[in-house]
Amino acid sequence: MDKLMLFIPYLPLALAILFGISQLLMQVFIPAQNRRWLTYIALLEMSALSLVTILAYLSRAQIKDMPPGMQNVALANYQFLDGFALFFYLLLIAASFVTLLISAHYLERENMPRGEYYSLIFFALAGMMVLVSAQHLMTLFIGLEIMSMSTYILVGYQRENPRSNEAAFKYFMLGSLASALLLYGIALTYGVVGSLDMSAIQSFYQTHPIGPLGSMGLILILAGLGFKVGAVPFHTWTPDAYQGAPMPITGFMATAVKAAVFALLIKLLGEPFVILRAYWVELIVLLSALTMITGNLLALVQTNIKRMLAYSSIVHTGYLLMGVSALSIQPDSQIRSALLYYLFIYVISTLGVFVALTHLSGRGEKIQEIEDFSGLATDYPFTAAALALFMFSFIGVPPLGGFFAKYFLFSEVLRLQDPLLQGLAIFAILNSILSIAYYLRLVVTIYFKPVNAIWKQAESRPVSISFLLLVTGLITIWTGFAPFNLLGIIPGLTPLINWLQAIVV
Amino acid sequence: MNSYLLSLLIFLPLLTGAVLLTLPRRFTAFAKGAALVIASLEFLLSLWLWVQVQPQGGYQLVQKLSWIPFMNINYHVGIDGISLFLVLLTTLFTLLALVYAWHQIENNGGRFFSLVLLLEAGMLGTVLALDLVVFYLFWELMLIPMFFMIGIWGGARRIPTVTKFVIYTMSGSLVLLISILFLGSAYHSQTGNWSFDLTILTQLQLPVSPLVDLLFFGFALAFLIKLPLFPLHTWLPDTYTEAPPVVTFLLAGVMAKMGVYGLIRITIPLFPGAMERWSILLSTLAIIGIVYGAIVALGQIELKRLIAYSSLSHMSLIALGVFNWNPTSLEGVVYHMLNHAVATGALFLLIGIVEKKYGTTQIKELGGVAKQAPVFAALFLLMSFASIGVPGLNGFVGEFLILLGVASSSASLAILAALTLILSAAYMLWLTQRFLFGALNVPAGRLLSIERLQMASLIPLCLLAILMGLYTRPFMQYIGPAVQDVISRNQTQLQAQAEGDHHG
Fold first, then answer.
1. What pLDDT does B56 receive?
2. Cβ of B167 and A433 within 8 Å?
C-alpha cells in the first residue's frame, strides 16, 4: 500500500498521458456525428487533472518522510512535485483548458478532425509537466522533447495551408537545432560533473571551478533554452511559427509553452547553476536587453496581428529575462514570486487576447491584419472592450494586472541595488514606452477608425468564448485591484503572493 | 481618525461611471441623467468639504487603509488647503462640463457622460492621494477616459492627435513609475522596509549625487509634460484644437493643473535640494515658455490654437511661480491655477459655441460678432480681461502674487515674467478687436446664440471671475497656512540635509 502511495505524485502526469491516448482511441470508435462528445470529455478530463494535481501535491509530504531507499523508488531524484511545480502544473492546465475550449470552436468552424488534436494537447501538457517538475537534466530533456514534438505537429495541423506547413517546418528545424544544442550542453555538463542530478551539479560547482568544458556546457544549455523562449538572437522562428499556426495553438505557444520553458530557466539558473552566476549574469542581461529592444522595434512595424503579438511576446520574454538575471544576485523567494506572478498575469491576459482573436479571425483566419479590426467596437462592444483591456494591461496601466506584474518585478530587481540591473530596469522602462505605440494602435483601430464592412454581418459569439473573455478579463482586472483586501470580504491577491513566496523557497 | 468622506468623493463617480459605461445604448437618457445627478452630488459634497476642512496646515480628513501589506503600500488619502481648491475646481468643472455637454454630445452621449465621471474620479484621486502608488494609479486613470473622449468625439485629425497625446503622457508616467520604484528601493536599502508613503519618503535623506538629480527629473517629467513646460508642449496645441470643446475645457481647466499640483505636492517636497540646484534652468524654460507662447499666440489665425498658446504662456507663468518656491509666489500659484482654469476654460467653452454655430473658428472668417451677439461678446470680453489680468478680475490677483514672489527672489526674472502682462494684452486685445468688433463678417445665414444650458454653465464661471477678483479671503485663508506648512517642512528637510552633509 505504501508503495502505491509513492506513485500518487506522478498521477497527474500519468493521467495526462492516459487521457491523450484515450482521446486518440475514442476518435476511432465514436461515430462522426457524435464527435462533439470528444470535446466534452476532454474538458472534463482537464478539470479532473487539476483536482488530481492538487491531491498529489498534498500527498507529497508522505514521500519526504520515507527512508531514502523508498524515495528512490518514487523517482524523487528525477522529478518532484514541489510548490514551484504545482504552481506551473495548475497554470499549464489552465492554459491547456482554455486552448481546448477555443480549439473546439475553431475546429468546428474550420471543419478539422478533433481527436488527435486534443490528444496532442494532452501530450504537450504531459511533456510540460515533466519539464517543470524535473530534478534531473535527463528528465528535463525528455519533457522538453515530448512538449516540442507535440507542438510541431499542432503548428502544422492545417495540412492544406502552405503557411501552416512552412511554420511547422521552420519551427521543427530550429527547434531541433535548439534541442541538439541543449543536449550537447547537458552532455558536456555530465562530462564535468559526472551526474545529471540538479542537486549534484549544484554541490559539485560549489567546490569546483567551472573549467572550459563546463562553461561550454552552460552556454550551450542557455542557447538551447534561449531558442525555446524566443530570446533575441534566437527568435527568428517565433513570428513565422506564430503566424502559420492555428490561432488557438499560437495562443498555446505564447502562453503554456513559454511559461514551461521559463519555469525551467528559473529553476536551472536559480538552483544548479546559481553558483556560476559570474559566468552567466552578463549574458542574460545582454540577452534581455537585446530581446526587449529588438522585439519592440519589430513589433512597431508589423501589420499582421499575429506577428505583432509574436514580437510582443518576445518583448515580455525580455522583461522576464531581466527578472531571471536578478536571480544571480539573490536567488530568494521574493524575486521568484515576482517572476511567477508576472508569468501568471502574462499567461492570463495573452490567453484572453487569443480567445478574442480566435473568434474574430473568422473562417479560414481571413482576418489577421490590424487594419481589418477598424471600428470593431461598434458592433462587438464586449469583445472590443476586452481586447482594449488586455492591451492596456500589457502597457502596464494601473489598476490592471499588467501594472502590478511590472511593479513587483521592477521593484524586486531594483531592490538589489545592483548598478547593472538598475541600468537594465531603466532600459526596460524606456522599452515599455516604445511598446505603448503598437498596443495603442490596436485600441485606436478598434475604437476610433471607421467601421470595417466585415463587422456588419455580426457573427454571434459562442457562449464558451464569452465565458472565457469574461473570466480572463475579470482576472486581469482583479489581479490589478487584487492586492486590495476589500473590507475583508473579498480576498485580495495577497494570499496568492504570500503563497508564491512560501512555495518557491 | 479615519474619515470616509474623501473616499466617498473619489469612489462615487468611479463606481457609477464604471456601471453607467456598461449600459447599452438605449439607456442613454438615463445614463446622462444619472451622471448629472452624481456630478451635482459630488459638487455638494465638495462644498461640505470646504466647511469641514480647517484653515490650517497639514493633512486633514486622513484615511489610511492597508492595501498591499507585503510591499507596505497603503491606501492613504488626505486633504489640505492646496488640494481643497483643486477638489472644488474638479467637481465644479465636471458639473459645468456635463451641463454644457447635455445637448452638444449627440453621438452616444451616455458613454461620454460616464467617461467624464471616470475622469473626475481620476482627478480627485490624484489630488487626494498621499501614497505614491495610489497617486500613480489615479494619475493613469485620468488618461484613459481622456483618450477615449478625444479619440471618439474629437475633430477630423483626432487619431494622430490622440496618439501623440497618449504617448507623450504615458512616457512621462512610465518614467514616473520607475522613479517611484527607485525611490522606494532607496528607502528599502536604508531601512530594510518598503514604503511608498509620501509623508514618510519626504523625510528620506538622499545624498547629493547625479543619480538624485536624475531621479528629480524622473519625478518632474510627467508633471512638466502635463503642465506643459517648454519644450514639452508640442502635444498641447493639437490636442486642445482637436478635442471637443468640453474636453478641452476639462483638459486646460483641470488636468493641466494636476501637473502643477504634482510638482508642489510630490516632486519638490521629495527633492528640495535638487529643486534649488535646478531652479535657474527650469525658471529659464518657464520664461521661454511665457514669451514663446505669447508670441506664437500673436501669430495664430485660428481661435482655439490662439487660446491654446495663450494657455501655454499662462501655465508657464504658474510654473515659474512654483520654481521660485517662496510663500508669496506659491500662494499666487495656487490662486492663479483657479483663475486660469476659470478664464481659459470659459474661453474654450465660448469658442465651442462659435464652432458649433458658425462652423468655423478661422479668425479671418469671423468679425464684428458683437453686433450679432452682444451677450456672447460681453462674456468673451469679460473672460479675455480675466485672462489678461485686468485689476478687479481674478487673473490680476494671481499674477500679481506670482510676480511679487518671483521679484523677491530675482528681480530680473520678474521683469522678464512681467512681459506676460504686455504680451497677453497684446494678443487678446488684438483678437477681441478683430473677432468681436469691426465690420460684421460671419458665415452667411448663421446666427450666434447661446443655448440655455450653455449659459447655465458659463454664468458660474463669470461670477467666479468677478468674485475671486474682489474677495479673496475665503480662498486665501485656506491657501496661506497650507502653503506655509509645505514650505516650512521643506526648510526643515533642507536644514537636516545640510547638517547631514556637514557631518558627513
1. 79
2. yes
